[in-house]
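Hey, can you fold this one?
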Amino acid sequence: MRYSVTIATLCLAFASTSAFALNQYYAMPGNAANGEQIFKNGKGDVPACTSCHGMEGLGDDAMGTPRLSGQGYKFLVKQLSDFASDKRKDETMFVMNTNAKGLTKEDHQDVALYLTNLEQPFTPSDMKAVKEMGMTPVGTRYLGKSIAQYGIPERDVPACHSCHGFNGRGAFPIYPMLGGQRYTYLVAQLKKWRDGTRSNDPMSQMQIVAQKLTDEEIYNVATFLTSAPKTTMGNARIPHLQ
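Sure. Predicted structure:
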C-alpha cells in the first residue's frame, strides 16, 4: 500500500501543538542577559540590533526590518547562522551578514534566547502609514484571510495556518511567527522566496508556495497576517498561558 503525504499534511502535524508549548520542550541554551546586552548595545564592531529592529524588537516598516520579539528560538538561531555562513543574504539593510559574522555561535544563541522571551503587545503595521509611504501597495485583508485560512486549493496553495499555526502565531521549533509581523517585511520575503533570492527554507517549502502567488495575493495575505491576532474575540485564551 502506498501513502501520499503532502507538505500541508506534514505542516499540520507541527501546527496542531501550541507554539509556546513546543518552545518549552526543546533545549534553548544561552545567556539571555548577554543577549540583551548585544541587542541593546552591540558587541565590538557589531552595532546594537535596536538601531534597525527597535528597542522592543518590533521592527520597522519604513526600513523593511522584521519584528523579532516573541519569535521562535531555533528559527532565530538558524537565521543568524545562515546569515553568518551566507546561506541567507541580507538585501534589505545589507548589514546582517556582516553583523552575524561578528558574533559567535554562543552570541547567536544568547540573542535568540533574549528575543524569544521578549513578549510584546500585539502591534500590527500601520497600514495607513505604509500606504502613505508609497513604497509597497496595500492589499485587501479579507482576501488575504481566505488564503491564510484555506489556501488556494485550485492552484495547490496550502493554507498558511497549516504550517504556521492559527493566524500565523507560529509553530515552533520549525515554523516562525507571522501574525503581527511587519507588512513590508512579509511582502519582501514572499517575493524573495518566489524569485529564489531567498532559499534557506526547510525542504524548499516557502519557495514552492510563493512561486504560485501573484503580487496581489502576496499583498493581500501580508495585509491579513500583519493584523492577525493570536486569539479570537470569542476565545482570548492563548494555549501556552493555561
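The longest helix spans residues 183-195. Let me know if you want another pass with a different chain boundary.
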